[in-house]
Design goal:
Layout: E1 3-10, E2 18-24, E3 31-40, H1 43-49, E4 59-60, E5 64-72, E6 84-87, H2 97-100, E7 118-119, E8 126-127, E9 137-141, E10 145-147, H3 154-157, H4 163-174, E11 182-186, H5 190-202, E12 206-211, H6 214-222, E13 227-230, H7 237-243, E14 250-255, H8 260-269, E15 270-278, H9 292-297, E16 301-304, H10 312-324, E17 336-338, H11 343-352, E18 358-361
Parallel strand pairs: 4-8, 11-12, 11-14, 12-13, 14-15, 15-16, 17-18
Antiparallel strand pairs: 1-2, 1-4, 2-7, 3-5, 3-9, 3-18, 5-6, 6-10
GO molecular function: mycothiol-dependent formaldehyde dehydrogenase activity
Keywords: Metal-binding, Oxidoreductase, Zinc
Organism: Saccharothrix longispora
Length: 363
């Protein structure tokens, strides 16, 4: 039977979010309903609110979440009612060329629930990244549910659903950081700080954090940065990184800011033959001009990192296990715990750089 629950919606471009009642139907084949326990407030949600991603309003916001599976549809065998799960926005198909070659993290298909959630007047909702977790209950594709240890704090592990996994994976999966590597991370907001934590977990010996905000540099230090560069006081970031790496440049440089300026900084701060990872999503208006010869002479690898090249079924629960062992301080990313009515204020705090993550907690 369909359920009516409270949810946070973006009704029109650029307007403050609204708390409304929505209708969550029973799950269809291959689908599941999840009682949401916690959901992080991510920049992507703000992009939906502001119409940066699309204009298919109204949007049901929230996508970085954990919860309890309440009901499953026909044919679902990967989760069952009562399972504690982290929601992910990559449900792989298992059949495409990438999946058949054992590279499911590059699956080209996109599975989301086909049964729509609606307003009480029947207006269909567009759930953010196919999840829509700023709601007491949400409907997703069962493949978007990844079981993890129920011993974990829902507000902490929810962040693996997007930003924290993107940063961890940019270092560990995409960048391939290894024991003894030198790593530089440019831009240490939530994703960049997670890249710092991932580099430490992977065994990097020198981890350099770069940012314009001293508060963010403080977070990066707490998560494992051995050195920090205040880009306001030290405008020549490339030279500063080279000075900290015996003049060689870093083995792996991660651009978590995503501007033409930081792209160039990352490119030239990379050691000869090293790896450059772009994990931040640039604005569509941004343009880059580079000497083609430099791209040849610098050698090495350039990669973009999409969701940290993660495979949720492979990565989420082991990372939760490392957190429970005290080896991965995921709790540091939770700056504040808020209610559904506080999401608009959380966007304001995000813009001001006051938080790593605000997390909506359902009690």
């Amino acid at each position: 039977m369909s359920k009516i629950v409270k949810a946070v919606l973006a009704l029109r471009r650029g307007e403050p979010v609204a708390l409304r009642e929505i209708v969550v139907p029973d799950p269809g084949p291959g689908e599941a309903t999840v009682r949401v326990l916690a959901s992080g407030v991510c920049h992507t949600d703000l992009h939906y609110r502001d119409g940066v991603i699309g204009d298919a309003f109204p949007y049901l916001l929230g996508h970085e979440a954990s919860g309890i599976v309440e009901q499953v549809g026909a044919g679902v065998d990967n989760v069952a009612p009562g399972d504690f799960v982290v929601l992910n926005w990559r449900a792989v198909c298992g059949r495409c060329r990438a999946c058949r070659r054992g590279r499911a993290e590059s699956c080209v298909d996109d599975y989301t629930a086909s049964t729509p959630m609606t307003l009480t007047d029947g207006t269909p909702l567009q759930p953010a990244l196919g999840i829509g977790a700023f709601a007491e209950l949400t409907l997703v594709h069962a493949g978007q549910c990844t079981p993890v240890s129920p011993k974990a704090d829902p507000a902490v592990v929810a962040l693996l659903g997007c930003g924290v996994m993107s940063g961890l994976g940019a270092a560990m999966n995409t960048g391939g950081v290894a024991t003894g590597d030198t790593v530089a991370v440019i831009g240490v907001g939530g994703v960049g700080c997670a890249a710092v934590a991932g580099a430490k977990l992977a065994g990097a010996t020198t981890i350099i954090a770069v940012d314009l905000d001293e508060r963010k540099l403080g977070h990066a230090r707490a998560l494992g940065a051995t050195d920090v560069i205040d880009a306001v006081r030290t405008p020549d970031v490339v030279t500063a990184i080279r000075d900290l790496t015996d003049g060689l440049g870093a083995d792996v440089v991660i651009d978590a800011a995503g501007t033409p300026e930081t792209w160039k900084q990352a490119f030239y701060a990379r050691a000869l033959g090293g790896t450059f990872v772009l994990v931040a999503r640039p604005d569509s208006s941004m343009r880059l001009e580079m000497p083609l010869l430099d791209t040849f002479l610098r050698n090495g690898t350039y990669r973009t990192s999409w969701y940290g090249d993660c495979l949720p079924s492979r990565d989420f629960d082991p990372l939760v296990g490392l957190h429970l062992q005290g080896r991965l301080p995921l709790d540091h990313f939770v700056t504040e715990r808020i209610g559904l009515t506080d999401v608009e204020g959380a966007f304001t705090s995000m813009r001001a750089g006051d938080v790593l993550r605000s997390v909506v907690v359902f009690t």
